[in-house]
Give the backbone structure.
Amino acid sequence: MANASTDTIAGKTRAGLSREEALTQYHTLELPSPSEEHWRFTDISGFDPDAYAVAEAAEVARPDSMLDLDTAGTAFAGEGGIEIVSAPDGVTFEPLQDHELLGSLVGVSDKLSAQNAALWRNGLLVRVPKGVELDKPLYARVSNSASGGALFWRLLVIAEELSRITVIEEYASDSPALAGYTNAAVELFVGAAAKLEYVSIQNLSTETWHFASHRARVDRDAELDWVAGGFGSRKGKVWIQNDLVGSGATSRVTGAYFADGSQHLDYDTFQRHDARNTTSDFAFKGALRDTARAVWRGMIRVEPDAQRTNAYQENRNLLLSKRAGADSIPGLEIMANDVRCTHGATNSPVDRDELFYCMSRGLTRGEAERLIVRGFFQDILDRIEFPPVRAAVAQALEARIPKA
Amino acid sequence: MAVLEIKNLTVALEDGTEIVRGVDLEVATGEVHAVMGPNGSGKSTLAYALMGHPGYEITDGSILLDGTDLVELGADERAQRGLFLAFQYPHAVPGVTVANFLRQSVNALRKARNGGEDDQIPVPEFRRALIEAMDSLKVPKEMMGRYLNEGFSGGEKKRVEILQMAMLRPRIAVLDETDSGLDIDALKVVAQGVRSLVGPEMGALVITHYQRILNYVSPEFVHVFVDGRIVVSGGPELADKLEAEGYEAFAPVAAGGGSP
């Protein structure tokens, strides 16, 4: 069965299911298979979600962070719960309970999202009232620590009109060889003329299956600036959707990833323009080594009323070994006539002549490769405005570049 | 004493086609040698093979630099031993600034010459040297923050090649068609830059199609290169003869009557 390529999270979402109903859906639905368009390049038939225990882990682990942050609020979450370490005044930063907006952006669209809706325990609610600005970021570290355990996580962010905040989410594992499963659902509401900077960095163990759906709704004149970093995990899929629902809304999503060994990363992105004068700019770059693979799917959909839309999508992969590979599937679906949409995708090995040029100046092969890889990511790093995040992403990339 | 000794050098493409067919050439420090040849004669192949481009196979002969045979060495090791190539078509290195690239290169050479131990140049010292070199080659300062060769004009690329040479201080510099793409003012600056570096520490091999650059770089020796071989060597007067008579006069000697 081939779905329409735009039939991502939006098309099949059913919000407002009870946990019991979601559980029924979970048991009824099959795991997505490569016969479905969105899963064509990501075969998860080796994954059995039931094999991972919904753990009763008592402790919330706190593995090392990639980030060096001075925060306005900090939370640690794991299989066993969520701990709010600090919270700013005047802003809701607390464990997520039932909420009227919960599930309205990320509902039940497949077996895995049904499982999250049925079984999630720990989540974070961030609500920033109208006009409130925070200088420092709000930070949540989500860590799996139970071997063979499943971690279900939800984040709900409501940035009300004219507010300005930064929310940083970091996924990590308590030990590098931990076998686990994480399943996340993130819903972001960016109110009129608000600005939300959202950072989601994933550095899970390479034995962790990772599935996540992130979706934002961006209102009139609001600005969403998003950074996605993918360094860990074994295999899975990350959905990223932006709905630009108010005129003048803009979103920018910057993605950087690096995979090696037998890692398999999948970013499935959707830029949906519902309103006039909206702008979206998605740029993803990745480097792949050994037999690692990356899948990137991009869809820009411009609804009939979304005239004067400006949309951009880009995916570039640098292949650092012959057996590494990437699939890039850009897409446009445009139903308005006064729009500007551009996209580009490339997958290429390190250029032999570029390598020779660098080596002719005395750089060893390793040094030359490092320089080229760093240079490849430079424009992506330049897009990251928040210095500690830029530094952390640069360092994470650096750490993965082959040593001289 | 000759620093670079090329002996009976034979170079083939990956498909086996022989392009350089037995070249003998010696270049000492303090000397400028010009290799002049028509398009398609194999001049650039010679330059790439000297530097160790993986797409060219040295099928016979040797390349000695200060007595060490370079043939089995990679481009990095050749550079570390003091060989430099100014490229005809310098490659862009996106995301890497001229200054950063040069600092990394300088440090790579210093490390190699320090027995493999890091010996990083202090940043202020590096910046002083870079600014001095940019001034003398009339390279605008803003170039140091631009990504290497990305969006550079032909002339900018060539000047930055010579800037790299000035910063890396090679024993022998091979300049492959550095004059192409340069206007006369830029050509003078570049030639002057080359000439000023030639001395007890450096010799140069200038590969060119035209006589023009030779008016400014004043080679001591001129070699006419046709069909993969040096067909005649002489002094600067040979360049004048070439200019007057063209390569035609030399072609039959080299081609042996069977060249396409």
Observations:
- The CA atoms of residues 193 and 222 of chain A lie 4 Å apart.
